[in-house]
Amino acid sequence: MNFGDIFKKSFLEGFASTEITTITVVTAMAIASAIALYIFFVYRVVTRKTFYSKNFNISLAGITVITTALILTMQSSVVISLGMVGALSIVRFRTAIKDPMDLMFLFWSISVGIICGAGLAQVAVILSVVVTVGILILDRLPVARAPMILVVNANDPDVEETVIQAVAPYAGHYRVKSRNMTENALDLVLELRTDAGGSLVRAVRAVKGVCSVSLLSHDGEVTF
């Protein structure tokens, strides 16, 4: 027996097939399904999207259960595990994940599926609790307040200085982001922070030559 035969024998013995019983499969799938349902509700509660994607949330739960089944199957035979690695390596996902929170939930679902499939359900439960607590705590940490956008439409192109004077008493910080001027009109966009939005809008609207005023807020990224 040469070195190659010894290596092959050691390799096959190290990755010998594992007997997967029905009880093991049912238990792992049940725990994975319970945690998947938990992830479904957590995502629904913490997401801030205006247009909530129920299909993506369902996909998170499905990925957890499917990953668990894959890991259980891969434990049964080294040949099957290598075949699955080759099959999954050719899969390409074209849908871009734009929200970092979605990426975190996606990785959470996959991780829980792998852990449950490996028979470490207690780790999956602890992981889910820790992640949930971390999300809730970090979400409540105070951060800088997002600026507001003031849009002013005027029929007098020379009214900008007067508008700025009307804004100054109500906004500690303001900056002109855009100005669009024509022969008989002015469109002005300002970025500002204020606690007196109603008074600010009324003061700017009272400026002679101003036709309309809009004050917009958003939940986007904050620039420090």
Please, could you describe this protein's structure?
There is one protein chain. The chain folds into two domains: 3-140, no CATH class; 148-216, Alpha-Beta Plaits. Helices cover 56% and strands 14% of the residues. The chain has eight helices and four strands, in the order H-H-H-H-H-H-E-H-E-E-H-E. Strand 2 and strand 3 form a beta hairpin. The mean pLDDT is 80.
Low-pLDDT windows of residues: none
**How many β strands by DSSP?**
4
Our count of domains comes out at 2
Largest sheet, in brief, is: 4 strands, antiparallel
| Average pLDDT over all residues | 80
Strand order of the largest sheet: 2-3-1-4
What is the ordering of alpha helices and beta strands? HHHHHHEHEEHE
Rg calc: 29 Å
Structural class of the secondary elements?
Answer: alpha+beta
Distance between the termini: 69 Å
Count, helices: 8
Which key phrases capture this entry?
about 220 residues, Alpha-Beta Plaits, 8 helices, elongated
Quickly describe the structure:
With 224 residues, this protein is α+β, with helices and mostly antiparallel strands.
Topology:
Blueprint: H1 3-14, H2 22-46, H3 54-76, H4 78-88, H5 100-117, H6 121-140, E1 148-154, H7 160-167, E2 173-181, E3 186-193, H8 197-205, E4 210-216
Antiparallel strand pairs: 1-3, 1-4, 2-3
Helix pairs in contact: 2-3, 2-5, 2-6, 3-4, 3-5, 5-6
